[in-house]
User: Fold Helix-turn-helix domain-containing protein from Olleya marilimosa.
Amino acid sequence: MKIPVLKINQFKENKTLKNVYVNDFFNHIQINKNLITTPHSHNFHLCVLFTKGTGTHEIDFNSYTISPGKVFFLKPGQTHSWRFDTNPEGYIFFHTQDFYDLNFLSHGLDSFPFYYSYQNPPILQLDQNHTVNIKTKFDILFKEYSSNNLLKELKIVTIISSIYIDLTRVYTAHVKPENLITSSYSKILEQLEILINQYFYTEKLPSFYADKLNITTKHLNRVVKQTLNKTTSQLISDRILLEAKRLIVHSNNNLAQVANTLEFSDYAYFSKFFKSKTGITPLAFKKKY
Assistant:
C-alpha cells in the first residue's frame, strides 16, 4: 500500500474553477471524510486557518497542536494527518502551482518564506488581532469562491495573494532568524529539494545534484550550509530517512522490503543507518507508531 496522493479535482465542488478550492473547514472535513481520515499527501499547496477547535496536526512525523489562531502551510508531497479533540472551525484553501504563478509576473509562490523550503516551519500562531484581520480576508475569499461574479478567478487569486502577504509579514516577525531560510539562496535550495525528491532513491552523492544544478559541489555545499547549517549529504540522508519513516508506518511492506525499496544493500545496513539518525531501530519505530 502506498501513501495516497490527493489531487485537487477530488475535492471539487465548484466546477467553473479547476485549480483552486476554498471551503469552510468544518464543512470540508465533513464532506471529505473518505479522503482525509488517513495520512495522505497532496499535489497542491494548502493553507488552513483555525478559529476554533483543538487537536493535533502531524506533518511528516512532526506533531503540531491545533488551536485558535493557528495557520498551517503545506507544499506538494508532504504527508499529513489530522486528529481533533474538539470540533474545528476556520477556513481552508488550496491551489496548484500554476494557478498562482501564471497570474503574477513579478513574483511566485517561492516569494513567501513558508513555501521557500520544506525546512521552514509549516506553522504560524496568530495573535487575536491578526486572527480577526486574516479571518476577514478568508471570509471574503470564501464568499467570492461561492459566487458567480465576473472576473471571479482573478479576484480569488488576488485575495489569496493578499492573505499570503499578510501572513508573510507576521511569519517573518515571529520565526527566529536562524530558523528561517532567506531568499538569497532560496532558488538553488528549492531546485535542490525538487531534484532530491526525484532522484534520492538512486542518487545519494552531492556531486550528482551539483551537476544537475550546473554549479560546483563546493558552491552547493556552501548554499546548504548557509541556509540550513547542514551538508548536502545530510539533506539527502534526511530525505531518505523521511521516506523510510513513511514506508515503515504507512505501507504494508516488511522492513526488509523497505530497505530494498530504498536501495540499501541489505537490511542490516539500512537498520544501522536508521538507528544512527533516530536513535532507535526500524522495528522499534514501527512499534512506536
About this structure: Residues 152-174 form the longest helix (23 residues). The radius of gyration is 20 Å. The chain has twelve helices and eight strands. The mean pLDDT is 88.
